[in-house]
């Protein structure tokens, strides 16, 4: 009987540890200060831009005129970035953005950019 109780408590403890690790927001791999997004601008809308992440120039040419549902079917990672000065950016530019305060995991994902630089 005592062995069964110890085994049950051990299993519960192990389950709680797995749950805590699995549900951590970013797995401890990033702090808010080093979250970056790289990709190509697909749209500009008000004070935000839509970015296709981690794609090649060739892939950008193939997807640039597709809708969000079409891009979802092709499993293209998209993120809306809020930014104070989107007018200095153009559709089709490859950018690197520093993220402020994390990323909302929707589709497309959403975040606020504290800085965006156009890649050369």
Automatic annotation (TrEMBL):
It comes from the Bacteria. InterPro entries: DUF3221. This is DUF3221 domain-containing protein. The lineage of its organism: Bacteria, Bacillati, Bacillota, Bacilli, Bacillales.
